[in-house]
């Protein structure tokens, strides 16, 4: 579509549009070197179209790894932004940053979540070289250990299925380097938690069955809550779109937490891990819950701020992750 229109003879040019084409120059955001010059770009061209044209000149920078900005240090333009609505003249200067090699979100999530699921099971089944030969393939005599394995596996199977069938992501990819960081975090913690919970010398919770039952109730409640929020978020976005809307409570009571927080899925996620901590009474689990909480609180604050920026009528009562507190 772009730059391919045959030039129109001046006498036959429609009067209503003074500019038929734009020129776009793309500079390196760091060095300001000129990387590419595109002439005859349609005014209706989107940033995604420009990225496609740019990648023809520089195939190593495929569209998903490009960030194009109006200002070298400014925000990245959205793929759906239209050239003629940007604050540029007929010669637009865009600044390019390389986001690095990209990998699809679905691959990322599948790798991140399948890892903990399998690693935990290795410890649960006590495969050789973990606890010494006499414990190989033996089973724990504590019922809570079996219950914990069911809960842990349930959690990650749920996440895998949600990644495949529930979430509608707006970004197709993320930087490849993130996967190493994320996998170290998820896989490492899963191994550490599983090692202690399935250890032959593991001691069950101090308050016995009562503690385990309470913990299971908290865990299941929060898992249901988390799933309900994910479904509510999915229903906000028509298939194939990138629309972002203000989420509101639906008829499902688990979503009523939207009255008080912007990211109730994170609130429920933290709740699930608190439940798992009470159930197993295990220090690495408590630490995983704490680190997860800190990370999700930071993300929730970012998401909350962007809701406030994007929507003037955003409900003022909401906090990012913990009602009235945080
Ligand atoms: N244990 C841990 O350490 C930990 C850490 C992080 C996450 N998690 C779990 O993983 C789940 C997913 O994490 P996430 O960070 O991807 O959650 P998220 O940002 O809340 O997003 C979940 C899905 O909903 C979409 N979405 C969010 N807000 C939307 C809106 N206003 N309108 C339309 N769609 C919207 C997102 O699309 P976009 O692609 O546009 O964002 C994404 O597909 C969490 O809920 C949590 O259960 C666990």
From TrEMBL:
Involved in both the production of very long-chain fatty acids for sphingolipid synthesis and the degradation of the sphingosine moiety in sphingolipids through the sphingosine 1-phosphate metabolic pathway. Catalyzes the last of the four reactions of the long-chain fatty acids elongation cycle. This endoplasmic reticulum-bound enzymatic process, allows the addition of 2 carbons to the chain of long- and very long-chain fatty acids/VLCFAs per cycle. Keywords: Acetylation, Endoplasmic reticulum, Fatty acid biosynthesis, Fatty acid metabolism, Lipid biosynthesis, Lipid metabolism, Membrane, NADP, Oxidoreductase, Phosphoprotein, Transmembrane, Transmembrane helix. Its EC number is 1.3.1.93. It catalyses: octadecanoyl-CoA + NADP(+) = (2E)-octadecenoyl-CoA + NADPH + H(+); (2E,7Z,10Z,13Z,16Z)-docosapentaenoyl-CoA + NADPH + H(+) = (7Z,10Z,13Z,16Z)-docosatetraenoyl-CoA + NADP(+); (2E,7Z,10Z,13Z,16Z,19Z)-docosahexaenoyl-CoA + NADPH + H(+) = (7Z,10Z,13Z,16Z,19Z)-docosapentaenoyl-CoA + NADP(+); (2E)-hexadecenoyl-CoA + NADPH + H(+) = hexadecanoyl-CoA + NADP(+). It comes from Zosterops lateralis melanops. InterPro entries: 3-oxo-5_a-steroid_4-DH_C, SRD5A/TECR, TECR-like_N, Ubiquitin-like_domsf. GO terms for biological process: very long-chain fatty acid biosynthetic process. Belongs to the steroid 5-alpha reductase family. Residues 22-98 form the TECR-like N-terminal domain. Residues 173-326 form the 3-oxo-5-alpha-steroid 4-dehydrogenase C-terminal domain. GO terms for cellular component: endoplasmic reticulum membrane. Its main location: endoplasmic reticulum. GO terms for molecular function: very-long-chain enoyl-CoA reductase activity. It is a multi-pass membrane protein. This is Very-long-chain enoyl-CoA reductase. It is an enzyme of class 1 (oxidoreductase). The chain crosses the membrane at residues 103-125, 184-202, 214-233, 253-268, 274-299. It comes from the Eukaryota.
